[in-house]
Structure formats: C-alpha cells, structure tokens
Amino acid sequence: MAEPATTTKTEQARTTTPLLAVEKLSAFHGEAQALREASLDVAPGEVVTLVGRNGAGKTTLLRSIMGLHRNVRGSVTFDGKTLDGRSADKRARAGLGWVPDDRGIYATLTVAENLSLPPVVDKDAAWSLGRIYEHFPVLRERRDFPGTKLSGGEQQMLAMARPLRAGSRLLLLDEPSEGLAPVIVDKIGEIIRDIKSQGVAVLLVEQNVRFAGTVADRHNLLAQGEIVESLPNEEFRSRTTELLQHLGM
Ligand SMILES: Nc1ncnc2c1ncn2[C@@H]1O[C@H](COP(=O)(O)OP(=O)(O)OP(=O)(O)O)[C@@H](O)[C@H]1O
Predict the structure, then answer these.
(1) Which one, of 85, 50, 81, 53, lies nearest residue 67 by Cα?
(2) Which sequence spans correspond to the domains of the chain?
(3) Atom number, ligand 1, closest to the C-alpha of residue 50
(4) Ligand 1 pocket check for 121: Cβ under 6 Å
C-alpha cells in the first residue's frame, strides 16, 4: 500500500473546519460594486491576508465580514453559524474582534480602562488582564497612561489587545503596520505570531507586502473587488515581485 502523502502545516490548517468562511460576498457602495463574489476561509489559529492596492476592496471586505457594511450579498459563517443579517455587535459577541485602521482608542481613558471597557463576549476565550500584560509588556508599563500619551505602535498594540481581553477568537486587522516605523512594524509582526501561537486566528488587510510575508500562512490577492489569487505564504514569498506587478502595486 502506498505511504500516505505528508501534509504541510498549511494543508493541515485547510482541512480543519474553517473558523470563518466567506462565500461569494459582493458589496456595494450605492450603485457601485466594490466587491465581487469574494470567497475565503480562515482556520482556527491561522493568519490569512487580504493584499491589494488602494481601492481594491480590502477594507470593504473586512467591514462586510464584521457587519459594519450592510449593503452585501453572499454569506459569512463563523464557527459553523451564519452571521448573515447580524449586526456588528452580534458578530462581536460571536467572536469576531474588530481592529480598525484608526485603532479606535478612547483618548481620555487609560490603557487599563480601554482594555476593560468592552464587554466580555466569551468567558472561556477572554484573556485576563494579567495574560494581556504578559503578552503585551509595554501595555503593563503604560497601564495608567491615557490614550493620547501612547505612541502609534502602543495604540496599535492596545487596539489588538482589547478584543483578546473580550474573548474574540478571530481578529480582523485593518493595516496594522500603517504609519509605523520599520522597527515597530517588526514588533507588531512578533505580536501577530504570538497571538497565533495562542490559537487566535487573524484576517489581516495589508499593503506592506514584506510584512505580510513575515506573519501569514496564506494570502488572498484582491484586484478591483475580486480575489484573483489565493496562495500559501511560501509561494507568495517566492513570487512576490511578479505578484506585485500583476496587482499594480
Ligand atoms: N463610503 C464609500 N462610498 C463610496 N465608495 C466607496 C466608499 N468606501 C469605499 N468606496 C469605494 O469602494 C472601492 C473599494 O474601497 P476600499 O476602501 O474597500 O478599498 P481598499 O482596498 O481598502 O483601499 P484603501 O487601502 O485605499 O482603503 C473603491 O473604489 C472605493 O472608492
């Protein structure tokens, strides 16, 4: 009998039931169609990207998954349950964690208050403050600082830590590297890899392709509202120049 083929980690992740499954999602801004039948999935503990140039539809796709953009067709399933027609609040309660590109930090509240404000959505999955501080030591140091006194990188870390504190099992990250110095981007990369090691999944919108290749398991390339290619990280890294030319980036 033939030996069973060995499977890579990515293949193993793909054969597990997806945590998030998006099927044929189309989205509209008024009459204009910003997203065309986009399908993708994310397995538990997997980091998956949406890569594409400005206006490709990345943020619209992320917002549609979170239920913040409602003019959509198609389906979104999380942990085997449909999210279609559900509000963003209900989707957060199901386990989706929203990390917007403006980071959404409450400026006058301290780091500790920002962390404690969102309601816990899942008692078993919620990280304690102690666990947050263990994985984000800079937030422990800054715990009594107001949001206004944080650097861009610290704000980004706080924005990522907040849904973990609430118990999200998948983070939707919109361009976490934007506007940050390269050394801080590397730090954000370390945190994403650390979050993954804790079993939390990530769907990441990125224009920084070098960064995307250091953190993700798989990539979805978006052009004019369509996912034109979906590929594992190894292939993405070996074909980066060609793919970027193809996307006009
Ligand atoms: N509120 C809006 N009203 C009308 N059109 C919009 C709106 N938001 C986005 N669009 C259009 O939808 C398309 C997709 O935009 P989207 O912001 O999703 O792209 P993106 O890939 O995230 O780009 P960027 O990185 O520049 O945000 C673009 O053509 C954009 O002009």
Answers:
(1) 85
(2) 11-106+173-247
(3) 21
(4) no
CATH 3.40.50.20 corresponds to the domain 11-106+173-247: no
Cβ–Cβ < 8 Å for 99, 173: yes
CA distance 14 to 4: 17
65 in contact with ligand 1, CB cutoff 6 A: no
CA–CA gap between residue 134 and residue 99 (Å, rounded): 20
Instruction: Give, for ligand 1, the residue of 35, 54, 66 to mutate: max count of ligand atoms closer than 8 Å to Cβ.
Output: 54
Residue 225 CA to ligand 1 centre (angstroms): 9
pLDDT digits 0-9 by tens, 145-174: 999 899 999 999 999 999 999 999 999 999
**DSSP sequence for 127-188:** PPHHHHHHH-HHHHHTTTSBGGGS-HHHHHHHHHHHHHHHT-SEEEEE-TTTT--HHHHHHH
Largest CA distance in the chain: 67
Tell me the pTM. Answer: 0.91
Distance in Å, CA 69 to ligand 1 centroid: 11
Which amino acid appears at position 177 of this protein?
S
User: What is the ipTM, given to two decimal places?
Assistant: 0.94
Q: Which two tokens stand for residue 135?
A: 């994985």
